[in-house]
Amino acid sequence: MSTTALPKMVPAAFLSVVLIWSTTPLGIVWSSESVHPTMAVLLRMLIALTLGALIILIARIRLPWSATARRLYAVSSIGIVGGMLLSYFAARYIPSGIMSLIFGLSPLISGLLAQKILNEPKFGPMRLVALVMAFIGLGIVCSSKLSLESDSWIGLLLILSAVSLFSLSGVLIKTVKINIHPIASTVGALIYSTPMFALAWLLFDGTLPIETWQPRSLLAITYLGVFGSLIGFISYFYILQHLNASTVALVTLITPVFAMMLGAQLNGEAITQALAIGACFVLTGLALYQFGDPLLNKLSKKRASRKR
Prior knowledge:
The chain is mainly alpha-helical. The protein is 79% helix and 0% strand. It is built from twelve helices and no strands. The protein has helices at 9-31, 37-59, 67-90, 96-103, 106-117, 125-148, 152-173, 182-204, 215-242, 245-248, 250-267, 273-307. Helix 3 packs across helix 8 (182-204). It starts with 8 loop residues before the first helix and ends with a helix.
């Protein structure tokens, strides 16, 4: 599709996704500074659910409640509850930049899971190289953090579990065949997810020390509720409709870089040499995973045409 045929809002939506995904890890760190992680994520979900429900009512968007729709909401909640809850707990142990970098591995993990669940073809040589490079980078990042801080391994395990559940949810969503508005699927998933966040708050905290909550945490929760959980999701589905998959995949390459820069500038997070090297390996692996095979195919076609 040519860029001239794109709707005017597509560039703005793409930029919105990049900015929102880049700032979300830092928002998670700030929101749980003075608010317990379970309460921070619960408030975020309540804001998103309230706004989403209002949009559905005002725009008169249909919210399906068939067995298939409920299955979609249930599998979507795996990524929302598992991915977000574990990410909020991880934010107490690792910097926001590392959280974003590890979440960037989701396309690779999704690809591995899709082979088992969706019977997709196994990785070719280029994607296997990409996988090895990305996990070498992850190993460098993890080893540097483990050597610097004794409890960082907790955060690393939590965020790896979070991205695994997020990827699993994304693959399972593909098994549900239903035509549904993205806002309706968001609200349906939030209806399923929000009670689980409330249960997590009761189990892990259950208190309301409002007097200790700081303005920065409350602003971060509001930002994540409005932008991270609602506008970002709608923008993401919008660009999926108008851009090809390879262009949308650029988001996973751009956001970790911005997230690490923001963490360093706004939150004093150190970018060590090991982190920089590990990040280069991870991002190179992601680039090879997304664009390596198409590039090889183009090169092979050019060579074949020259031989003729």
